[in-house]
Amino acid sequence: MVAQGRPPSPCVLCPVIRREGFIIFEVSRVIGDIHPFEVGGRRFLLSVTTGALVEVDEEAWDLVQRLKDGEDVAGHPCLAELAELVAEGVFSQGEEELWIRTAREARGRSVVKALCLNVAHSCNMRCRYCFAAEGTYRGERAVMSREVGRRAVDFLIEASGARRNLEIDFFGGEPLLNMAVVREVVDYARARGEETGKRFRFTLTTNGLLLDEETTRYLAENMDNVVLSLDGRPEVNDRMRPLPDGSGSYDRVVDRLLSLIRRRGDRSYYVRGTFTRHNLDFAADVLHLSSLGFKNISVEPAIGSGRDWSLREEDLPRVLREYEELAVEMASRGGDFEFFHFQIDLERGPCLGKRLKGCGAGTEYLAVTPAGELYPCHQFVGEAEFLLGDVFDGIHRMDLVRKFSDADLYQKRGCPDCPVRFYCGGGCYANAYARHGDITHPDELGCALHRRRVECALYLQAALRERG
Amino acid sequence: MSKNGSHFKVLFRPKAETFRGGCGECQTSCQSACKTSCTVGNQSCER
């Protein structure tokens, strides 16, 4: 009790001050777990390690910014409420120790679960940004033989240990140039699956030029997923995806691709475009693809540097703004189509392995050339120093496999401090190698894009939930 | 922010097991997703 008319005794206030000091200490301890971001005029806090998403008003935003800047926050009106969230475990940093231990324990224990079969190192288009040098991977044009295809299936079964679910992706070049081997591999894998108890999931990526009635029917019925290449607006697509005679491909493929997805009914597919610095307004291409009737859309930045179409550092603000405008537009439409990068399932997200390591290239996922050579993934094909072995004699570069196995996000430069590390898995090994010559040094431009895409995805989830 | 004057509104709070989860036998979508995107770490597993 403080007598009226006298200055308060410091002894009486001490418990209050001590309590506030304790609160500030507690919230400061977890401030590294809090990632503040703004999208569409709304402000959010993401808990990096618990995955919780919190929307805040201006005062709460101010508190977090001041804590981040190390300023004095004594007496801040939002302090007690933030402390409550910390006490409830909405924001926390305790979980990550468990994750780091799990990542260490998982090293070297994975089995091969997916193969990318490059059934054709050849292509009937001449896309200017093609990472595979018009499908040849800087080598000779070639197609995979039935023997190599069958042996690849045997290799996958042998290398998959006790794992039941396996995946084969038909890729190229253009895989429809070698449909006979695609069919052969599917039949053979199913037969071997019956014998061995393995279950195969098939995916095929195509530009659609060779989709005739019979091939369309076959892919609709036999592929679990198809990835269909188309960049968006006709002039954008035709600038970068010409035919060998230089003419545009848009009019030649659009109806064929639409016919395939209609025939597939509810089965999964993605129409997949690429954007370059020639179409930094790529949201217009996403919306164009949506207007054609495609419901599952991905538009990705082109990989590469030093070309007229390559993204540059100075393009970054525009690209980030474009993602935000796309997210706001999708929110206003009520989510009538899916954009690959804005898909985040907060209730049933990726497993820990994927959160820590991403795609599994070099360990769980390998690419096979027409000659049967094994590489860490389709983007490493043709890089001599990444040749792992072949499907006949197996892997002889176990040192490389170990290198990929060890390269979880805790071993990558910048990843341990990245706020969206658990929505990324450490990024693309091939992009890292292309940019820095080191699979553990992620491409910073790609990181900036992904960080913004995750923020936009979280905003979109929040907006769509409000609409019910 | 909210009607009761709160400055913070918790929108999502995943269960801990969801964020850690992983049966190790997922029907992987990440490899085919690789053809869709160079970044697949935010994509759910298809079990």
Topology:
The complex is a heterodimer of chains A (468) and B (47).
Chain A: H1 10-29, E1 34-39, E2 42-47, E3 53-56, H2 58-68, H3 79-87, H4 95-106, E4 114-121, E5 142-143, H5 146-159, E6 165-172, H6 179-196, E7 199-206, H7 213-222, E8 225-229, H8 234-240, H9 250-264, E9 268-275, H10 283-292, E10 296-301, H11 316-333, E11 338-339, H12 352-357, E12 365-368, E13 373-375, E14 389-390, E15 394-395, H13 398-406, H14 429-436, H15 444-467
Parallel strand pairs in A: 4-6, 4-12, 6-7, 7-8, 8-9, 9-10, 10-11
Antiparallel strand pairs in A: 1-2, 2-3, 4-5, 12-13, 13-14, 14-15
Chain B: E1 8-12, H1 16-20, H2 30-36
What does the model show?
The complex is a heterodimer of chains A (468) and B (47). In chain A, a hairpin with a 3-residue loop joins strand 14 and strand 15. Chain A contains 15 helices and 15 strands. Chain A is 41% helix and 16% strand. Chain A has helices spanning 10-29, 58-68, 79-87, 95-106, 146-159, 179-196, 213-222, 234-240, 250-264, 283-292, 316-333, 352-357, 398-406, 429-436, 444-467, and strands at residues 34-39, 42-47, 53-56, 114-121, 142-143, 165-172, 199-206, 225-229, 268-275, 296-301, 338-339, 365-368, 373-375, 389-390, 394-395. Chain A is globular and about 85 Å long. Chain A is of the alpha/beta class and 468 residues long. Chain A folds into two domains: 17-93, no CATH class; 111-461, Aldolase class I (TIM Barrel, Alpha-Beta Barrel), CATH 3.20.20.70. Chain B is an alpha+beta fold. Helices cover 26% and strands 11% of the residues of chain B. Chain B is built from two helices and one strand; from the N terminus they run βαα. Chain B has helices at residues 16-20, 30-36; one strand at 8-12. Chain B starts with 7 loop residues before the first strand and ends in an 11-residue tail after the last helix. The chains are: A alpha/beta (468), B alpha+beta (47). At the A-B interface, strand 3, helix 2, helix 3, helix 4 and strand 6 of A face strand 1, helix 1 and helix 2 of B. Strand 3 of chain A pairs antiparallel with strand 1 of chain B, so a sheet runs across the interface.
